Amino acid sequence: MGGCTNCSGKSACDDHKGGMLKTVAEWMDILYPSRTWGQLDDAVAVDSGIEQDDIIALAEELGAELKAATIFHEGGEGDCCDYIYILCQGRETCSLQVKYGGARVPQEWSESETLSEFYLRVAISTVAPLAVVQQVCVTTSNVDGDWVVSEELAAGVYDAPLLKRFQRLVAVLPAYGLTHLDMGEISAAPEGFDDRAYQALFDRPAHRVNYLFFREPSNMQITGPLCSAAT
Fold first, then answer.
1. Res 204: pLDDT
2. How many Å apart are CA 139 and CA 202, to the nearest integer?
3. What beta strand segments (E) does the chain contain?
4. Which residues neighbour 71 within 8 Å (Cβ) at sequence distance 6 or greater?
5. Which residues fall within 8 angstroms of residue 58, CB to CB, at 6 or more apart?
6. Cα 53 to chain center, whole Å?
7. Nearest to 40 by CA among 27, 50, 23, 54
8. What pLDDT sits at residue 49?
């Protein structure tokens, strides 16, 4: 029978996870001395995060290393991270080059067509030298003359066509001083932290990823306008 219990590499994997969780716990204590979601120690955060210019440089290097389009996207209100999207399945010009990169809607897009694309999304913390990766399915369609795009986030990377790029991506991160965290290991609420403000917003507990990276739940779906079909 397979699985973690009988895997010959289980001991090394357990050691890796133990070290990862120790790193996460240390940064949580440093960044949130009050142990309360939303009460980040700004002075520590400013000195600990990676500079945006370095994140943009990383996006360019990943594009060359993975031979794929990369799109930088600045984190939104309440986020503690910026993002790099890596196109893994789809054609250029892709939807997120239009949404986040300022590209125009290609003339060859058919208004009756629905585009399906897959990306790896790298969230890079701006408050600690940490990164986490998840796969994203992006669907774009024309609705009554407007392009609508939906990003469906997975709680990790699972699909085989994305795994090789994922492994090569992770291998690049240490050169930028970044520690990669497994999404599954930080998708749980930390013990002893006050997340009442988060629960008031999302009606669910704040996970570790919500303290170190982005505000929204890690498996949510983001839907909104891309731009006008006439653009």
1. 95
2. 24
3. 70-73, 81-89, 115-125, 130-143, 146-153, 179-181, 221-228
4. 59, 84, 85, 87, 94, 96, 97, 100, 101
5. 84, 124, 172, 173, 176
6. 18
7. 27
8. 86
Query: What single string gives the DSSP state of each residue in 133-162?
Result: EEEEEEEEEEETTEEEEEEEE-SS---HHH
Long-range pairs for 73-80: beta carbons < 8 A, 24 or more residues apart? 73/100, 75/123, 75/126, 75/214, 76/214, 76/215, 77/215, 78/215, 79/213, 79/214, 79/215, 80/40, 80/45, 80/49, 80/125, 80/126, 80/127, 80/211, 80/212, 80/213, 80/214
Contact 212, 55 (CB under 8 A): no
CA distance 82 to 190: 23
> What pLDDT was estimated at residue 146?
87
Burial class (CB in 10 A: 0-12, 13-18, 19+), 12: exposed
Q: How many other β-carbons are positioned within 10 Å of the β-carbon of residue 126?
A: 22
Residue 219: what pLDDT?
A: 85
The residue ranges of every structural domain in the chain are: 10-228
Distance from the Cα of residue 55 to its chain's centroid: 13
Instruction: Give the pLDDT of residue 16.
Output: 58
DSSP three-state, residue 180: strand
- 10-residue block means of pLDDT along the chain (231 residues)? 40 59 94 96 90 95 96 94 96 94 89 90 96 96 90 91 94 96 93 97 96 92 72 42
**Residue 59, H or E segment:** helix 52-66
